[in-house]
Amino acid sequence: MKWFLFPVWCAVVVGALTSSLVAADPSVVAVFKADQERLDAMMAGNASALARVLSDDLLFVHSDGRVETKGDYVKNLLAGDTAYEKASTSDVRTLEPSRGIVILIGAQTMRKRLGGTWSDISLRFLSVWRKEDGDWRMVAWQSMRPSGSSVVPKK
Questions:
Q1: pTM summary value
Q2: Which of 8, 50, 90, 101 is at a distance of 20 to 30 A from 56, taking alpha carbons?
Q3: Which residues does 150 contact at the CB level (< 8 Å), separation at least 6?
Q4: In a domain, 5, yes or no
Q5: pLDDT tens per residue across span 99-155
Q6: According to DSSP H, which parts of the chain are helical?
Q7: CATH number for 91
Q8: Residue 11 lies inside a defined structural domain of this protein
Q9: Which domain holds residue 73?
Q10: What are phi and psi of 76, to 5 degrees?
Q11: What are the residues facing 106 on neighbouring strands?
């Protein structure tokens, strides 16, 4: 290695370690775990497990603009018209605007069955998690289907 590149290498390593330490924040780790439990419950069609990680105050905004409460969302999963497979989350950024609140912003892919038709879904999402009685629960969700890249015109 060329010695003049050594400071650059050190900066990259320190930056990576710092990012790892930030990502290891106990609240964020707990929310990632709760969100994985949510996805697992969705894929298993397990309404009681899903209800445990959703706040009673939940507002769920679907990518088509429909808004559901926790009761609506869980009831519709139980109806059997909707099923999920291969749900995964990526490209997640986190914010902790105040104690007991964590916001996730990321991407999600899944296979979804609506009625008899399966489709592959790619979403961008924002979810808000709140610590309630010692447990992290999702209190808000909004998703959208990306349609391409936005280009801001030059001024």
A1: 0.78
A2: 90
A3: none
A4: no
A5: 999 999 999 999 998 888 999 999 999 999 999 999 999 999 999 988 766 667 777
A6: 6-23, 26-44, 47-53, 70-78
A7: 3.10.450.50
A8: no
A9: 23-144
A10: -70, -35
A11: 125
